[in-house]
Write a structure and sequence with these properties.
A hairpin with a 4-residue loop joins strand 7 and strand 8. The protein has an 8-stranded mixed sheet. It has an 8-stranded parallel beta barrel with strand order 9-10-11-12-13-14-15-16, surrounded by 4 helices. The termini are far apart. Helix 10 packs across helix 13. By secondary structure, it is of the alpha/beta class. Its cofactor is Mg(2+). Pfam families: PEP-utilisers_N (PF05524), PEP-utilizers (PF00391), PEP-utilizers_C (PF02896). InterPro entries: PEP-util_enz_mobile_dom, PEP-utilizing_PTS_enzyme, PEP_util_C, Phosphohistidine_dom_sf, PTS_EI, PTS_EI-like, PTS_EIN, PtsI_HPr-bd_sf.
Length: 612
């Protein structure tokens, strides 16, 4: 962990300056900047090895006690925040609380104290070591794509709790936002998740920072609070002085310092326009996802971590189409048992109030890192090409106890509402048959124990993520009760291109006709076998692409919750005949660029429906 140093103060330049950062939370705001500096803790002697270990251990335990008390006070403050923020912060505070308890982190710090290290140094070294393990697992390829996003988030959790301990060890105070004027735009070098928990969204107009990213806990929290926000606007602090006026666009990442009169006037128009759009999208929440020609579709939400649940309800999604269960196995030393998993699934199912929840059993491979799984020899093979190695259902069938435990937990929670169970990365009929036999056996065992579970068992479906699965959908659909097309992996395997690999990223195109033909083939097979087919990859969140997917035969979509309103708006403006014509043209196209141009042209002709 690095101790941040105050940068030399520079004289702000005159005139309008435009900066670009990472868009985090949509909305436009205009107001005066209020800079919140974070007091830096004193320097730490990292080389010292002659400390009294008993004394340093006492200091550590005192710092842990103070940290736990602070987290408790933050938790008590949740009632003052919007409901979305309450859930996000509450979940994160629970992660921090567990890390401060009997954990690998705490054991590692205490082991360093026995070497005579200063408590601050032990905390900094251990948290940075664990964060680095999240980002680059030893002997394994660095995580890519969504796995890299999750890895950065987990690394941030270690670093954040380390910072809290160091501040409490050194007695360094935290910054406060209570003195900021109403309507101010909060400007900071960096904003921690715990800092964001102190923001009153009724008083702060927007947030801009020099550092940070769009995928961390702070970004998720700001989105949940509904505050326009831009992170990583480099060079911002050098431009901001007393009473500096800013325009912040959280959708584009644009920050304008000292806007001209003309720019300020345009910004006020954008503020009003955004307010009207939010009202319109809010009305869409209550309306069906129905084409202008009358056909009704299903829009559901993907869920990566429970903290995103409020965004699902806010979006108007008709259930959870993909609950990724990998979060259960991250930042923990032990595998989650049947009871713990049930306790996590149950409130998610209950919160959906009768809308269906599709839970995908853990999708793991050697490119991912989990202490709990590594302890039992899972996911630590260091394969040269993890995408073509033991992952998904292949791995689960090699470690059947893991699959049985998860099946049992899902079945135990399924009495609370409609549930579906999804198997990842199925390529062969034998894999599906073996998993179904385990599923049925677990159900029989639970009934013998007198556990209340649904009868019949919840539907068991498969992800269509490889060309082999798409080509064999007719056969697989005889055993699978529903099908979910994962366009991200399907694109990668079809075009032999990993979007995270710089040299071939340009070849990765989910709108390539080869991918679209496999989608059409899967949808046709599902129709013949009377099996529901959904798309749950990133393509489902593209408002221009969804009408094309409808034309290819897909009637159900699952996407990030934030995309649901805009996709619904596109659907309500489209007609089935147009969707089918686009599909025919797309299947005859020569490349993805041609398809993309066609979709853009069609979107330009659409008139948004009157949803008032």
């Amino acid at each position: 962990m690095k101790t941040t140093e105050r940068r030399p103060k520079q004289r702000p330049r005159a005139g309008e300056v435009r900066l670009e950062g990472q868009p985090v939370s949509s909305g436009v705001a205009i107001g005066y900047a209020a800079v919140a500096h974070e007091p830096a803790p004193p320097p730490v002697d990292m080389a010292r090895r002659d400390c009294d270990s008993a004394h340093e251990r006492t200091r550590l335990h005192d710092a842990i006690s103070r940290s736990v008390a602070q987290l408790g006070r933050l938790h008590d403050r949740l009632a003052l925040l919007p409901e979305d923020g309450q859930v996000e912060i509450g979940s994160l505070l629970e992660v921090y609380r567990r890390m401060l308890g009997p954990s690998r982190l705490r054991r590692g710090i205490e082991a360093r104290l026995e070497q005579g290290m200063l408590a601050e140094a032990a905390v900094m070294q251990e948290t940075e070591t664990l964060a680095a393990l999240m980002l680059v697992p030893p002997g394994r390829p660095a995580p890519q794509g969504e796995d890299a996003v999750a890895a950065r988030r987990r690394a941030g959790e270690f670093r954040e709790i380390g910072r809290r301990l160091v501040r409490n060890l050194s007695g360094t105070p935290y910054r406060s936002f209570s003195t900021l004027p109403d309507g101010a735009i909060l400007v900071a070098e960096q904003l921690r998740p715990a800092d964001a928990a102190l923001i009153d969204p009724s008083r702060i107009a927007a947030v801009v920072t020099e550092e940070g990213g769009s995928t961390g806990h702070t970004a998720i929290l700001l989105r949940a609070l509904g505050i326009p926000a831009v992170l990583a606007a480099h060079g911002l602090l050098a431009q901001v002085g007393r009473r500096t006026r800013l325009v912040v666009d959280g959708a584009t990442g644009r920050v304008i310092v000292r806007p001209s009169s003309r720019t300020a006037a345009a910004a006020r128009v954008e503020v009003a326009s955004y307010a009207r759009e939010r009202q319109m999208l809010g009305r869409l929440r209550r309306l069906p996802a129905r084409l202008s020609s009358g056909e009704v579709l299903t829009l559901q939400a993907n869920l990566e971590i429970p903290a995103e649940l409020p965004m699902v309800a806010q979006s108007g999604a008709a259930g959870i189409g993909l609950l990724r269960s990998e979060f259960l196995f991250m930042n923990t030393d032990t595998l989650p048992d049947e009871e713990l998993q049930e306790a996590i699934y149950l409130p998610l199912i209950e919160a959906m109030a009768g809308d269906p929840v599709t839970i995908r059993v853990v999708d793991w491979g050697s490119e991912k890192n989990s202490d709990a799984l590594s302890r039992v020899g899972i996911g630590n093979g260091g394969d040269a090409n993890p995408a073509l190695a033991v992952r998904g259902i292949r791995l689960l069938l090699q470690h059947r106890t893991l699959l049985e435990t998860q099946f049992a937990a899902i079945l135990r929670a399924a009495h609370a509402g409609p549930v579906r169970v999804l198997l990842p990365m199925v390529s062969l009929l034998e894999e599906l048959q073996a998993a179904r036999e385990i599923y049925a056996r677990v159900g029989r065992r639970l009934r013998r124990r007198g556990v209340k579970i649904p009868d019949p068992l919840p539907p068991l479906g498969i992800m269509i993520e490889t060309p082999a699965a798409a080509l064999m959908t007719d056969v697989l659909a005889q055993e699978a009760e529903f099908l979910a097309i994962g366009t991200n992996d399907l694109t990668m395997y079809t075009l032999a291109a990993d979007r995270a690999a710089t040299d071939v990223a340009a070849l990765y195109d989910p709108l390539h006709p080869a991918v679209l033909r496999l989608v059409r083939m899967t949808a046709d097979a599902g129709l013949r076998q009377r099996r529901p087919v959904s798309v749950c990859g990133e393509l489902a969140s593209d408002p221009q692409a969804v009408p094309l997917l409808v034309g290819l035969g897909v009637r159900s979509f699952s996407m990030h919750a934030s995309a649901v309103p805009r996709v619904k708006r596109a659907i309500r403006a489209a007609a089935m005949d147009d969707c089918r014509r686009m599909a025919c043209r797309a299947l005859e196209a020569t490349d993805g660029q041609e398809v993309r141009a066609m979709l853009a042209q069609y979107a330009h002709t659409l008139q948004p429906p009157d949803d008032g």
